[in-house]
What does this fold into?
Amino acid sequence: MKLKLAFGMAALAAAFVMAMPAARADALSDIKAAGKIRVATAMGVPLFAYVDAQLQPAGSDVETAKMIADSLGVKLELVQITNAARVPTIQAHKADILVANLAITPERKKAVDFTIPYATLDIIVAGPKDVAIKDYKDLTGKRIGVTRATVNDMMVSENAKDAEIVRFEDDATLITAVASGQVDLVSTQTAVLAAMNEKKGGDPLDVKFVQKSLDLGIALPQNEPKLKEWLNNWITEKFKSGELPAMFKKFHKRDLPADLLSRKD
Amino acid sequence: MMYTFDFSSLWAYWPEFLAGALTTLEMTFAATVLGLCIGVAGAIARGSRHAWLRVVAGGYVELVRNTPFLIQIFFLFFGLASVGVRMPVLAAAVLAMVINVGAYTTEIVRAGIEAVHPGQIEAAESLGLSVPQVYWYVILRPALERVYPALTSQFVLMMLSSSITSQISAEELTAVANNIQSITFRSLETYIVVALLYLVLTVLLKSGFWLLGQGLFPRRRRLGTPL
It folds into this structure.
């Protein structure tokens, strides 16, 4: 009986060891050797990553992922995740890189590595026309909807401690919450707001104030200098050639800032 | 692959964990009490002499047991809000849990009721017991005693599935864990802590039900035999 248990434990331990990724040279060589790159995107984010009328993934993040795979000459495997799963996905090596409108923040830098900015977005507080809100102070005692684990969530939690913060799991659910009238004040980004107003029909929400202009980076696991260097070069090249800004404008109807590459988070 | 566990960064968040666990317990308590009432009423209705009552109760049970809990929650919170019926999130969450667990409880209690021998009911009627008396002493109490273990495990299951209500922004234990995970990025540690907390809640709930059972079913307590 004891022997059986010992065997069982050994087998279990062996299974754990086998489940761990084998020792690797570096992520970039691994991707090339495998002939495919696993790119995580947060689906359900208007303009960045969403499902189009033909039920195919579309948006500037999805397009960026396709361009990266093309340049590497490998197959693209999209890993579709939620906003809250973005950092854990990279930490757990569920994807090679993450192109999921993830803002570069000092907190996140402790957990994952970032490239130079590849895009930007403004995060804002929006509400109905007749509600007067100019600052975080005005949110006291009010219900405000956010998407969990976003910079919006962090900033509102930090600056509007007396607001009632209502957290939803992804942008799509937040949009549904606004469209169905469950919340009328939101902290979100401009692209999501556009989608909300479209779904809402009448009485569009107005931008009350801009919380922050964010630089978005491609996230990758820490200690992968070769992959990071390749991605940084890729962003610089595609930005200068105009391919990246043109693609971004196609979805967002606005230009990427000219100083994007020199922005130091 | 090395992983260094760091539970210390979670320590600062214990009041949040506790508040989340309390919310989960409160939701479970409300849903258990109301769900049991619906279950007993539903079970009686399913065995009713009136066909329309049987149809209504049967339809309710089939509808709820054959659709996903998440869809039921979204329907109550987002669907109804679109047509102007707005509920606070906790009310919607508890209502969804009550409706859900009520359907399962209906079937469990019905099994208990059907296990009561018709001869006992006939005997009670011939002794001149009134209809409510027959239902209370001869049908419901033995029925509930028989299915008590199944009932309690259904309520424990419901407490665990209440984690789904985090999707509509109910700040229960799972939502709190997701918040803390997104601040600390210690996802493995956070989910280990939250799993242990659910385990503690389950043990608490089971002990509570055991104590309640000792009080409710004196026959079983004294004799220690199943009906």
